[in-house]
Amino acid sequence: MLPDIKLAVRLQDIDNRVAEVTREVSSLPKHIAEIERKLESHERKLEADRAALTANLKDRKRLEGDIQVQQQKISKLKDQMLEAKTNEQYRAFQHEIEFCEKEIRQAEDRILELMGESEPLERNVKTAEGALKQEKAQVEGEKQEARERTAGDQRELDQLQAERKSIATQISPAVLSAYERVRKLRHGIALAEAVDGRCSQCHMSLRLQFFQDLKRGEQVMHCESCNRILYYNPPESFEHLTGEAAPAARG
Predict the structure, then answer these.
(1) What pLDDT is recorded for position 249?
(2) Would residue 120 count as lying in a domain?
(3) Fewest 10 Å CB contacts: which of 107, 145, 213, 244?
(4) CB–CB of 232/193 below 8 Å?
């Protein structure tokens, strides 16, 4: 394999990794924003339940106050009833007392309803408070992990960019120019390995003579279909794989 092609292959590996790490770096803030939105949604739900519970308790206290007022009224009416001069006055006091008692019964019934409504609200608030505490800790943990991963990714990107810059000074200008041009045209993939007589990227068959010339590795060659720079990796020999000489063929 030509030295320029070896360098270009490494350049492609670097660019692939840079793209991968860059995607991860850009995805982390989106992930954090998503879990923070979910946390905020749960916080709003908890605040709504707290507000409903507060309103429930406020209504119960108001009704308890109304009951006290009606009870005081009844007490006064009973005192006044003792001083009634006529049956009409007596009956009028009775009607007022009955009305006050009806108001008390309605208030008591409503208080019982509110108490029944408050029980699930109290459970929801208590459960949500515990869950929210755990969720906040989890979110903070994920945010810290994301910050650490981003810092690590940035260090890796710096190293990759430094290596890329070094390779760019070693590769011939013509091959580097061709690499960059094809990379822009082919969504970041400028090289393709020839496997079984085909381009591994566009999967088009290579002409037999073209493939033979590529195997010799004497010049930079481009796929006639997708224009990517082609390279050929010869299969490893038995000696290379085992470290031993191939067995002699029997006569």
Answers:
(1) 42
(2) yes
(3) 244
(4) yes
Q: Is residue 3 part of a domain?
A: no
- Paired with 193 in beta bridges are 231
Q: Does residue 92 share a domain with residue 47?
A: yes
pLDDT tens for residues 50-85? 999 999 999 999 999 999 999 999 999 999 988 888
pLDDT at 251: 36
Q: CATH number of the domain at 79, please.
A: 1.10.287.1490
133 φ/ψ angles, rounded to the nearest 5 degrees: -60, -45
Q: Write the CB contacts of 84 (distance below 8 Å, at least 6 apart in sequence).
A: 90, 93
Tell whether 48 and 157 lie within a shared domain. Answer: yes
Say how far residue 74 (Cα) sits from the centre of its chain: 63
User: Which domain range does residue 215 map to?
Assistant: 173-240
**13 assigned to some structural domain:** no
- Predicted model pTM: 0.63
CA geometry: angle at 75 spanning 69 and 79, to 5°? 145
Tokens of 81: 């009833």
Does residue 117 share a domain with residue 63? yes
